[in-house]
Amino acid sequence: MRNKSLFWIAILIFAITQCTYHNEEDYFGDNQDNCDTSNVTFTNDVFPVMQINCVSCHNTNNTTAGVNLSDYNNIKRYAESGSLLGTIKHLPGFSPMPPSGPKLDDCTILKIEVWVEQELNNN
Ligand code: HEC
Questions:
Q1: How far is CA 36 from CA 5, 16, 29, 86, 122, in A?
Q2: CA nearest neighbour of 74 among 95, 55, 56
Q3: Is the omega angle on the peptide bond into residue 99 within 30 degrees of 0, that is, cis?
Q4: In the structure, which protein residues have their CB atom closer than 6 angstroms to any atom of ligand 1?
Q5: What is the pLDDT of residues 25-34, one digit of tens each?
Q6: Pairwise CA distance, residues 113 & 105, whole Å
């Protein structure tokens, strides 16, 4: 008898913990709601991200894999070909970038995506 009630308590605990992140869409949705993409610019939201995460390997003197991400014209080239978003979003068919360490955070990626959608302005 005692074993049986323990069994049901275990089921109950399992059910409750499963509900914690039950609504994944809300969970991630919140994250994106906190991401302000209303005023995305190349200077504030794209260039610094490349400087911090990418140019150590992809600069004018060291174009790893032939890729240079040190200035607007070069960054624009990879944005237009789709490989900038493909690599940072870890899409199939692209090498995930940066190659070591964590993926860029969702908000940073979203801002770069918005910049690409807004005609790749040099602003
Ligand atoms: C530690 C060095 C290093 C860093 C940092 C790095 N890369 Fe790369 N990148 C590489 C190497 C090595 C390759 C070639 C590897 C391959 O093709 O599998 C590459 C290839 C690429 C390519 C072409 C490959 C493809 O699949 O189209 C793009 C575009 C690229 N990187 C973008 C980026 C971006 C954007 C960042 C910053 C978020 C970044 N890289 C950071 C080393 C680096």
A1: 50, 33, 13, 22, 19
A2: 55
A3: no
A4: 53-54, 56-58, 64-65, 67, 69, 78, 83-84, 87-88, 94-95, 97-99
A5: 444 554 556 8
A6: 12
Determine phi and psi for 42, rounding to 5 degrees: -60, -45
Q: pTM, whole model, 2 decimals?
A: 0.80
| Mutational pocket test of ligand 1: of 56, 74, 97, the residue with most ligand atoms within 8 Å of the beta carbon | 97
Contact 102, 58 (CB under 8 A): no
69-79 pLDDT tens trace: 999 999 999 99
Domain boundaries, the chain: 1-34, 37-123
- Take atom 13 of ligand 1 and give the residue whose Cα is closest: 65
CA distances from 72 to 2, 91, 117, 122 (A): 70, 23, 16, 7
Contact indicator for 51, 74 with CB cutoff of 8 Å: no
Task: Name the region of 90 (left: φ>0; alpha: ψ -120 to 50; beta: rest).
Answer: left
